[in-house]
Amino acid sequence: MDRSTAGRPESEIESSIVSEQGKIDKSLELHYLPGTSKLSPREIGKSRVRLPCFKVVLPISVSTSFLFDIFLTSCNKYKFLVSEQSSSSITAIQTLTSTMRNLFTCLLPISEEKKARTSSIVRIDVTLNEKNCARVVTVRGMYGFPNRICQVIQTFKDLLEKAGTEFVKENKEDSDLAMPTFQTAYYQVSRFLSNNEAPAGKLYSDFTEEFWEKYTEIQISAQNTKSMVNFIKNSIDGINEILSKTVAQYSRLAIEKYIFTKIFAHIKKIYIEKKSEVITRFLEKRSENQTKTDEELMQQLDIKEKFCIKGIKNPYFSAIESLNNLDKHSCPIDKLNCILESTTHMKTTVIDYWHGREELETMDDQLPSVKQVLIISQHRLSS
């Protein structure tokens, strides 16, 4: 605790925290104990008081490392030191200020009560929202004094605004603004790429011309899919370098979708040629199993008894329906989302059937059920 507050009553200190915080940012999610409370800082940490919290949804193009850099900069400014770090979170703690008395005290055992008076903890968590192609960022106080924690959060928020990345509402993971924002970006990208006089449009025109020159012949192209993928990726990156300055959000995803919408039908033919033997074997296997019941398929695929779903017609209906939507999409990310959605429905079906007692956790458990979904997709639903 600072010397300026050392001799002041606890309630007065708490009131000053609220007053100081009010100058920083009233939009943050803050809750305080009443100024008349006699609780100690340790009891504040144990109580149900909600410490400052900031939540925002950002484009997937904003990397986790970039967000961590901003958070660490904010922490360093107020002498919060990293105590724990993982691939998706960082926890930082602010302890005693460096006075001679504190340097001497740190050599001695310190009680939890004293530690509570001097420590404030703040944490950042970054999670991926695959459905909306976004990163959900939460910076929140875990323990300690609200004003100290809020200084870090406010600095983090300000740095985000300076970087031009805060376009989505706070405290809403599945933001309704996510899709309109992408649609706006896609419209802007379409406008630029369809204009041959614009730099990005000229680059796109050159790409399409070179693509058809190189990969018109399906059989030859099927032998060079790796170079084709690299060519497409590098071209998208090049166009994105130009448009990312103008289209702030979802620039690369919009470019990718625009390009694949134009060329995917041809790319699909190339991969059908490349994987023709695999496709033939798969269609044969599916044909062999078309007349079998769901329970017979489960037995043939060696699905473990505890994961078998009996007595239900079309048990994986939702998973199959999601998988059958694959052909409606051209963009790779949309196709991946269909597959992820199908897998989620498949796992949810098992959880619902067994009322939460069983779950498809490992890939060894999931694979037989995935095979069943693949075998009965596009055939059972159409009948």
TrEMBL record:
<protein>
    <recommendedName>
        <fullName>VPS9 domain-containing protein</fullName>
    </recommendedName>
</protein>
<feature type="domain" description="VPS9">
    <location>
        <begin position="291"/>
        <end position="383"/>
    </location>
</feature>
<dbReference type="InterPro" id="IPR003123">
    <property type="entry name" value="VPS9"/>
</dbReference>
<dbReference type="InterPro" id="IPR037191">
    <property type="entry name" value="VPS9_dom_sf"/>
</dbReference>
